[in-house]
């Protein structure tokens, strides 16, 4: 068993039985709700919720490092209001003249429209807004979300924790195919070529995964292994080569004809 707390007193001194997370959502959990750490490598089930911490049973455990991702699925968001931190990040992005802002946790078009209105109010109307599809609610409401976005960022690791690792391939095909028909650009994040953090050559499964994503119609691959690998340029060159091979297998004329029919 382990306690999960948002008490900042434990931010830099977690123990074997108490983990700090920077999220107030844990206090909205109920018995048997799940908390996923480090992209689902660790799964916790809630036993009870106390004043500033949650007591959990460890369903699936593994070594946990610092600053790992925390994912809490299926927590309803009743408000479309942006937090003060969200607003400050958007203002910073506008000041830096970025081209694209990724909007995480999109569950419906109402929330996305609220974000766009705020960006326009802050004179960032020329910035493209991409919806992150990283939860099952957003996936279920994808037909509602797609018309109002400038593009889509498919976050496979987060989404797979909710739909299941054995179903993420289907979610990818649904999202990318609908974006292609609608003419909306896509970025796909899938922990591609992770073994190249320590190896100069990826595994066969990683190669096939990246190429299949290209063949499914993604416009961009988000390659996060470059943040950890010592040979960043080699990772990028290898991924670029795989993307080109994947694109070469697509029958462009047939694809153009099929998209025109739709």
Structure description:
This protein has two domains: 2-71, PK beta-barrel domain-like (M1 Pyruvate Kinase, Domain 3), CATH 2.40.33; 84-260, Phosphoenolpyruvate-binding domains (TIM Barrel). Helices cover 37% and strands 19% of the residues. It has helices spanning 84-95, 109-121, 136-140, 142-145, 156-163, 168-182, 204-216, 232-248, 252-261; strands at 2-5, 18-20, 34-37, 42-49, 53-60, 70-71, 100-103, 128-133, 151-155, 186-189, 220-222. It has a six-stranded mixed β-sheet with strand order 2-1-5-4-3-6, with no helix packed on it. A five-stranded parallel β-sheet has the order 7-8-9-10-11. The model has no long low-confidence stretch (mean pLDDT 90). It catalyses: pyruvate + ATP = phosphoenolpyruvate + ADP + H(+). GO terms for molecular function: ATP binding; kinase activity; magnesium ion binding; potassium ion binding; pyruvate kinase activity.
Structural class: alpha/beta
The CATH architecture term of the largest domain is: Alpha-Beta Barrel
How many helical stretches?
9
By CATH's scheme, which homologous superfamily of the largest domain applies? Phosphoenolpyruvate-binding domains
Q: How far is it from the N-terminal to the C-terminal residue, by CA?
A: 52 Å
Low-confidence stretches: none
**Content of β-strand:** 15-25%
**Main sheet makeup:** 6 strands, mixed
Give the helices and strands as they follow along the chain.
Answer: EEEEEEHEHEHHEHHEHEHH
Mean pLDDT: 90
Family: Belongs to the pyruvate kinase family.
EC number: 2.7.1.40
Pfam family, one: PK
Organism: Aphis craccivora
């Amino acid at each position: 068993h382990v306690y999960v707390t948002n008490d900042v007193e434990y931010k830099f001194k977690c123990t074997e039985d108490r983990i700090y997370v920077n999220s107030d959502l844990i206090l909205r959990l109920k018995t048997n709700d799940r908390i996923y750490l480090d992209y689902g490598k660790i799964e916790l089930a809630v036993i009870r919720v106390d004043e500033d911490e949650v007591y959990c049973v460890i369903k699936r455990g593994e070594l946990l490092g610092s600053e790992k991702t925390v994912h809490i699925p299926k927590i309803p968001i009743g408000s479309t209001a942006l937090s003060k931190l969200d607003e400050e990040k958007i203002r910073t992005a506008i000041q830096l003249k970025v081209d694209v802002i990724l909007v995480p946790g999109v569950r419906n078009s109402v929330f996305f429209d609220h974000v766009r209105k705020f960006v326009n109010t802050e004179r960032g109307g020329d910035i493209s807004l991409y919806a992150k599809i990283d939860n099952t609610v957003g996936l279920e409401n994808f037909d509602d979300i797609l018309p109002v976005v400038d593009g889509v960022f498919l976050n496979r690791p987060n989404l797979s924790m909710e739909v299941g690792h054995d179903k993420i391939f289907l979610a990818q095909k649904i999202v990318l195919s609908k974006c292609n028909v609608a003419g909306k650009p896509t970025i796909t994040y899938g922990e591609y070529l992770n073994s190249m953090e320590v190896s100069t050559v990826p595994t066969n499964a990683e190669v096939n995964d990246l190429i299949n994503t290209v063949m499914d119609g993604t416009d961009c691959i988000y390659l996060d292994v470059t943040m950890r690998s010592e040979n960043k340029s080699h990772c990028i060159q290898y991924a670029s080569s795989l993307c080109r091979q994947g694109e070469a297998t697509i029958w462009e004329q047939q694809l153009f004809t099929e998209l025109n029919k739709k």
